[in-house]
Amino acid sequence: MKTTAGGLAAPLGFKSAGAYCGIKRKRNDIALIVSDRDAVAAGVFTQNIVRASCVTANSALLPSTTMRAIVVNSGNANACNGEAGDRDNELMAQFAAESIGVGRGQIFSASTGIIGAAMPMEKVEAGIRLAATKLQDENSDAAAEAIMTTDTFPKQFAVELTVGGVQVKIGAIAKGSGMIAPNMATMLCFIVTDAAIDQAVLQEMLSRCVWYTFNSITVDGDTSTNDMVLILAKGAAGNKPITGLDTQDAAVFETALYNVCLHLAKEVVRDGEGATKLVSVTVKNVAPPKALEDAYVASGRDLTKEQRASFARSVAKTIANSPLVKTALFGNDPNWGRILAAAGRSGVQFDQSAIEISLAGHPVYSNGQPTDFDHDMLSKSMSGNELAITIDMHQLGGEQATVWTCDFSYEYVKINAEYHT
Amino acid sequence: MKTTAGGLAAPLGFKSAGAYCGIKRKRNDIALIVSDRDAVAAGVFTQNIVRASCVTANSALLPSTTMRAIVVNSGNANACNGEAGDRDNELMAQFAAESIGVGRGQIFSASTGIIGAAMPMEKVEAGIRLAATKLQDENSDAAAEAIMTTDTFPKQFAVELTVGGVQVKIGAIAKGSGMIAPNMATMLCFIVTDAAIDQAVLQEMLSRCVWYTFNSITVDGDTSTNDMVLILAKGAAGNKPITGLDTQDAAVFETALYNVCLHLAKEVVRDGEGATKLVSVTVKNVAPPKALEDAYVASGRDLTKEQRASFARSVAKTIANSPLVKTALFGNDPNWGRILAAAGRSGVQFDQSAIEISLAGHPVYSNGQPTDFDHDMLSKSMSGNELAITIDMHQLGGEQATVWTCDFSYEYVKINAEYHT
Q: Most-buried pick from A120, A185, B296, B337 (CB within 10 A)?
């Protein structure tokens, strides 16, 4: 697998466009992604029970093997708008379907931006029809820009890999950068591939990849009403279709998909509101509670790898969301006490005397007490734009998980306090 | 019940003192609270599994009917210091016991401040012995000051009430103001009363009062390793002892104790790091999940009032801890979308179309959509130093809960990023 250019345009047979319709003041605010024939589709959606109209509508379309396009607007989340919101979302999909000449049931829709503002449907309709005239397969620069909200740079990525001797490509665009509106944010990612693959296999792979990537990042812990990751796969590459999870081809494809998701997930965090650094929090060797394992064994089942790793991820998420940890990171303060205290309230049991904490590769806590580290030197080595925090719980039979977060700066407060609807 | 002067000195037979020993640069850092005879004692401790030495030691002393004193230092949390920390905590209690001539088992200890720094025991010993020479029963100003860390004002309160025709008093001191060190914070509260009351009754009342007060506040969601609320009751008032929870006397006393806890809990939030306003988040009419109620009914038990209210409190806590909600509050932004989105990720089920949200008494969301409110006028009425947020879920058989929080300002980031250990 290697990276390649073109974003969404890298795989064969996908076109995209960006257009300006006036929801936002200046930048493009409508994106269209179109497959030239029916595509197998899978999706993962926000776990917030308050869901935007587009999330509900897209969920109802899955599973599908006949999807043709994704229409997206930025600047308005079309969330919490009641029946009017559902109607506007439906219209948006219909305008897209008409513009490209396919059925409404072949269109995914997505919105990101302010919650609770009415959609300016005349503008949206004009924007979608304009975007349809701009579709091209050279690159996805315009589409990647058109889905941005508080993002400071567009996010796209593509890889090529070999599946059963055939070259296959995966391309994607994504946006961040806080978790919810009305500071105009929401995590969205759209992926396309020319690989041939079964829908159920694609859905399972996407769910697993998202667990380790987009569901393992946090900017502020606030889950959006609009979050979604969608993938379209249409088989133009001509590989022998991937029909199961356990083949060599499946492993190669899933690894590539994971890498696409991981790259873009980290880009979202790197561009988190006010962020000055990308921080990985890796928690190692955390075992599931014995009672849970026993209950599974007794019922003849096994915990999945993700279930086993979820305890390590809970610890990592609690640390990654702690305002005290995040402000310390902004200040380059090697404050292991805040990390340990956050771990202690995560709900996961551990032995305080067995835990080891490292910052930027330097051990700061072990054997139940701080190490004799040089504060100023360590602070200096924390001052770059990437930082690794590692916590080892040393539990037998344990799993590990990594969560990516950013620091908490004056700029975050400024962006989120001074914006007015 | 009415408020009265004197703090810890209001009830009969309690003395207190504050002294300077040099853990902190300038301010008093040792407090001593002494009962002139054996007192019934109860306590509530941090739920963090990383616990300071003082928390572990105090828990082991309860239940007790023979406590005599509480010794406290600020500036050093004596947490995560391994066996040396346990030894230093033990020494601290012993110095206090010797200084006032009682047994070590009659002393509670408490520490607040930096996590993971060694305790300067020579200074601490001198400070405790000095404090013992300064004990007086005029007021508790010096003790209230000596337990402060990043607090900007001392917190004390006292009430008088009539129990069975006899005048009884409750006095207390507390400190905030972030949740954990090393920015030198931790929530501590020490309460004394001259009422005569059984230990088990006192413990149950304290636990219930703390549930609704100190366990219903948040500054940043970070649970300290050192949090504790202790109460000493010694019966000098001469009331007929309170021996059960269901009498008129018990109800009067518990209400007064609740009011003391509530007053100080709100003071802690009002003085939260960087806070510009005290915000109450009240969530009404949230019913427990039907499956849980059915399981209780099937087993012949009832959910307690607190268990029933815990679902409303979960929603309120998720809102109260959301960085996006808290930054919007700092900016006086009537941002109901962030409130609703936070509620949606709280884990509690509700119907989005039945929910009502009010800010400062003005409805902003109902019937599944925003109301037609005047943004600028509402923003203006949010700009005071107190604000009420109300969410009504309209679920049959539901309970309500209130959580108190503060806003999230530049100053919070400054305090927590620029401090270095």
A: A185
